[in-house]
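User: tokens in, sequence out, please.
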């Protein structure tokens, strides 16, 4: 009986995991433009590192995908979500950044014939961080990283921004240098849709990493706001209007620069400054606030202290 029961329990466990695992789903933004919104929590086996927001545009000549997922399996899941909307193949992939879930699915789509595109510094940062990100995800996701091959975007563009015409769609790719050096956004001027990459976080607090720049984030957010996008597909969180992005990301960058940055420039004690602003009612409702806010202030203080 025990020999029969053990395999049965194992199969039931696998079935339960499959049922619980995150399955990406496309949602319309405007005509032929879609978002894929991942969970707000951390990377996990259940979400295959797809804890971010992605998007795609369906054109008469094929699909333009914005960011490719954190692994081959994640890329396959994204492709399956696209396949439920259109039979058109993914012809182009545009990377907005170099954090793992923005680009480690590149090789999967390139193997299907897609051209993978990024600005030059984005691709350079992908190459710089590839070993670190692969090792981190392999520890976290284990066998679910099988078949993942890091492929920094092969098609790159010099300069601070570039306009692209793909499948009859006009796109503007421009640096933000926000979450990672070389981060960028994708702006669809004829649609009023902004794929912000990891410049905009809604529903959860932005994370300021050791290589992030609050100064660049604040500047880029202000430039994005000046474009007056009708819809924003953020780096993390639901599709939103500019007003929500301003409240939950723009205002937070302004706080970090205006309060923490000013205190650093005035050589105030760091611990006292961080204690003073430990509780911010305007942002404490956001996911990850408790775990990220103090570290964010610490890194912002260090950035402005060094200027």
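Assistant: Sequence out:
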């Amino acid at each position: 009986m025990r020999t029969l029961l053990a395999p049965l329990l194992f199969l039931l466990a696998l079935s339960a995991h499959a049922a619980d695992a995150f399955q990406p789903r496309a949602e319309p933004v405007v005509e032929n433009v879609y978002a894929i919104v991942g969970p707000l929590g951390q990377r996990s086996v259940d979400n295959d590192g797809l804890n971010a927001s992605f998007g795609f545009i369906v054109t008469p000549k094929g699909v333009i995908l914005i960011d490719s997922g954190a692994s081959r399996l994640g890329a396959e899941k994204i492709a399956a979500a696209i396949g439920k909307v259109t039979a058109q193949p993914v012809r182009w992939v545009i990377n907005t950044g170099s954090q793992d879930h923005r680009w480690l699915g590149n090789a999967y789509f390139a193997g299907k014939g897609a051209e993978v595109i990024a600005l030059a510094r984005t691709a350079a940062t992908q190459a710089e961080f590839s070993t670190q990100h692969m090792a981190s995800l392999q520890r976290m996701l284990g066998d679910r990283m099988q078949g993942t091959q890091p492929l920094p975007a092969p098609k790159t563009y010099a300069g601070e921004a570039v306009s692209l015409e793909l499948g009859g769609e006009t796109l503007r790719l421009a640096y933000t240098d926000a979450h990672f050096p070389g981060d960028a956004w994708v702006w669809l001027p004829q649609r009023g849709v902004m794929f912000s990459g990891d410049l905009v976080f809604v529903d959860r607090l932005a994370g300021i990493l050791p290589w992030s720049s609050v100064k660049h984030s604040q500047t880029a957010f202000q430039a994005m706001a000046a474009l007056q996008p009708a819809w924003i597909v953020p780096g993390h969180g639901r599709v939103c209007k500019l007003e929500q992005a301003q409240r939950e990301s723009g205002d937070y960058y302004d706080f970090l620069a205006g309060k923490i940055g000013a205190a650093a420039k005035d050589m105030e004690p760091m611990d006292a400054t961080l204690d003073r602003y430990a509780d911010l009612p305007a942002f404490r409702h956001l996911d990850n606030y408790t775990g990220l806010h103090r570290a964010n202030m610490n890194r912002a203080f260090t950035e402005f202290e060094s200027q």
